[in-house]
Design a protein that fits this description.
The protein is an alpha/beta fold. Among the domains are: about 1-315, ABC transporter transmembrane region fold (Up-down Bundle); about 420-490, P-loop containing nucleotide triphosphate hydrolases (Rossmann fold, 3-Layer(aba) Sandwich), CATH 3.40.50. It has 23 helices and ten strands. The strands form two sheets. A six-stranded mixed beta sheet has the order 6-7-8-3-9-10, sandwiched between helices. Strands 2-1-4-5 form a four-stranded antiparallel beta sheet, covered by helices on one side. A hairpin with a 2-residue loop joins strand 9 and strand 10 (about 550-555). Helix 7 packs antiparallel against helix 8 (about 160-165) and helix 7 packs antiparallel against helix 12. The N and C termini lie far apart (about 70 Å). Bound molecules: adenosine-5'-diphosphate and magnesium ion. It is found in: Cell membrane. Its main location: membrane. This is ATP-binding cassette, subfamily B. It comes from Carnobacterium viridans.
């Protein structure tokens, strides 16, 4: 139950949907009580000979109305509860995504990139189940179970109810035990299957090599083993799956036997009628699912809670940033005033940044150049609040960035790091990762902006081509362009390209930069690069050397200053000419 407390923020936010959902669930539970009772009444009226055609039609009309109402109400609660739980998954997904983009290489070494996505997807589904299936099973077991038991006791007989209920808790236990075993084995079967798939893929792509080395027989044997394992694992699944029905039938059987023995006596002694016994037996059948739901609930909560902890752990994998209790949550807009007097990494004595100051009006572009290790990435790490302890301050929209909540700040920033990572999923899903509901057009628009659209169309499955550790391998430049598209999709107020175009050729780079300039004329952009051509059109350029600003100005200013920048520009121009000449 602890997980519901942890998710409290979400339920508070979605109060209306959940209250509506549970209310309609309750109405359905009440309506469901009607049909069994009517069947009982009809039986009794037949027995007493009082049933006329008119009365029969009356009863049947009520049955039809009840069916229609429960159909409608079921739809309403489903939309409210299931639909809302999907929202939770999306929120967590966005958070994770924003988080992943801020992580450095060591993070992706610690958690292998491909796995990260797979795990995150499974975990998010498990958490979503807590908010969807979990709430449903909880409400269902309490409401449907409760009202049915009350109806049995009130309408028929409370002693008979007690007796009939004795074996039913076994259903909850069975569903808990079998359910969790089934889940475990199902995972085993899935793992075996993807194992076999990997093997098949490997063999096909390595066919030539296999043939040259005469390894085909060994390869076929290995594949046979993997297939065998898939069959064995699936057999294990069905062994458990096949236990469900007999177990339910057995436990219900006991309940029916007890009911009929006692019920028969009550009929003989005139305590209840035959019709009431029939209604009663129908009610028992209605208890199967709520009882089962209790067991399922435990499993959902157990899995959801473990998953939520894992997601939380990933989210906490950042530097020890502490939010102020009354931190600002408003949308960040406006200018940036970056003013760092001194910053050293924790556990380091030498300052990494010294007197780095710049101002950036909304809509402007800043270029940052300098040697490797000069401190460019460090400048951005402070903007992204990976570190809070420095002398100086950074204002964004006239507020210190340390006064905003991390979410408020990071949601406005699209950071594309030096080291790209793509998830093992389709290109489309990679690009719209931050918001899986975006349409194909929007994905394509981002891809066109980053000049990757035509490349994608040429891939085997277009936008559905799977990339990453388990898919097609892309060139460095393609990876970079997809990563930028992924950052663009959230239309960030501030886009930081941290050496994110290094593997893209100069011509393509130019296309991307001019497209970005047009698209983002209202928003702020920072570009760090080795290549002078990446930054030469920026409103201001700063040259970082050993953590300090050594030169600054526009491209024209810097050429006049005749320093490092000019030297780099000339030598890169020369290089380009030589390359161009070699073509
Ligand atoms: N987490 C860290 N802890 C300590 N020193 C670091 C850390 N990250 C970077 N540095 C050091 O800070 C300096 C600047 O690095 P960085 O900002 O990555 O430069 P650039 O992006 O210009 O290549 C380098 O000397 C680097 O070794
Ligand atoms: Mg860097």
């Amino acid at each position: 139950m602890g997980i519901y407390k942890k998710l409290g923020w979400f339920f508070k936010q979605e109060k209306k949907a959940y209250i509506t959902g549970v209310l309609f669930l309750f109405l359905v539970a009440i309506i469901q009580l009607v049909p069994p009772r009517i069947v009982g009444v009809i039986v009794d009226e037949v027995g007493q000979g009082t049933l006329t055609l008119k009365r029969l039609i009356q009863w049947l009309s009520i049955l039809v109305i009840a069916a229609i109402a429960s159909y409608l109400f079921r739809y309403i609660w489903r939309v409210n509860i299931w639909g809302t739980s999907a929202k939770l998954e999306r929120i967590l997904r966005t958070r994770l995504f924003n988080h992943f983009t801020e992580m450095d290489n060591s993070f992706f070494q610690k958690y292998r990139t491909g796995d990260l996505m797979a795990h995150a997807t499974n975990d998010l589904t498990a958490v979503r189940n807590v908010a969807g299936g979990g709430i449903l099973t909880l409400a269902d077991s309490v409401i449907t179970g409760g009202t049915t038991i009350i109806a049995m006791a009130l309408v028929v007989d409370w002693r008979l109810t007690l007796i009939a209920l004795i074996p039913l808790p076994l259903l909850a236990i069975a569903s808990r035990v079998l359910g969790s075993k089934l889940h475990e084995r199902f995972r085993g079967a899935q793992a075996a299957f993807s194992n076999m798939n990997d093997k098949a893929q490997e063999s096909i792509s390595g066919m030539k090599v296999l043939k040259t080395f005469g390894q085909e027989d060994e390869d076929v044997e290995e594949f046979r083993q993997k297939t065998k394992q898939v069959v064995a694992e699936n057999r294990k699944v069905y062994k458990i799956d096949s236990l469900f029905d007999p177990t339910i039938t057995f436990i219900m059987g006991i309940s029916y036997v007890l009911t009929i023995i006692m019920g028969g006596r009550y009929i003989n002694s005139g305590t209840i009628t035959i019709g009431e016994l029939i209604s009663f037996i129908n009610y028992i059948a209605m208890l199967v699912w709520p009882m089962f739901a209790i067991g399922r609930l435990f499993n959902i909560l157990e899995r959801g809670s473990a998953s939520y902890n894992r997601v939380e752990k990933l989210l906490l994998e950042r530097s020890k940033i502490i939010e102020k209790p009354s931190a600002l949550t408003k949308k960040i807009r406006g200018d940036i005033q970056y003013s760092i007097e001194k910053f050293s990494y924790p556990k380091s004595d030498v300052p990494t940044l010294k007197e780095v100051h710049f101002e950036l009006k909304r809509g402007q572009t800043l270029g940052v150049v300098g040697k490797t290790g000069a401190g460019k990435t460090s400048i951005f790490k402070l903007l992204l609040r990976e570190y809070d302890r420095y002398r100086g301050r950074i204002l964004y929209g006239n507020e210190d960035i340390r006064d905003y909540t991390l979410d408020a700040l990071l949601q406005q920033i699209g950071y594309v790091p030096q080291d790209q990572f793509l998830f093992s999923t389709s290109i489309k899903e990679n690009i719209r990762f931050a918001n899986p509901e975006l349409s194909q057009e929007e994905v394509e628009k981002a891809a066109e902006l980053t000049a990757i659209h035509t490349d994608i169309l040429e891939m085997p499955n277009g936008y559905d081509t799977v990339v990453g550790e388990r898919g097609v391998s892309l060139s460095g430049g393609q990876k970079q362009r997809i990563s930028i598209a992924r950052a663009l999709i959230i239309k960030p107020e501030l886009l930081i390209l941290d050496d994110a175009l290094s593997a893209v050729d100069a011509k393509t780079e130019e296309r991307i930069l001019s497209a970005l300039k047009k698209e983002r004329s209202e928003q702020t952009t920072i570009i760090a690069a080795h290549r002078i051509s990446s930054v030469m059109h920026a409103d201001e350029i700063i040259v970082i050397d050993n953590g300090e600003v050594s030169e600054r100005g526009t491209h024209a200013d810097l050429l006049i200053q005749n320093g490092w920048y000019k030297e780099m520009f000339d030598s890169q121009q020369l290089e380009q000419k030589i390359e161009g000449g070699a073509d």
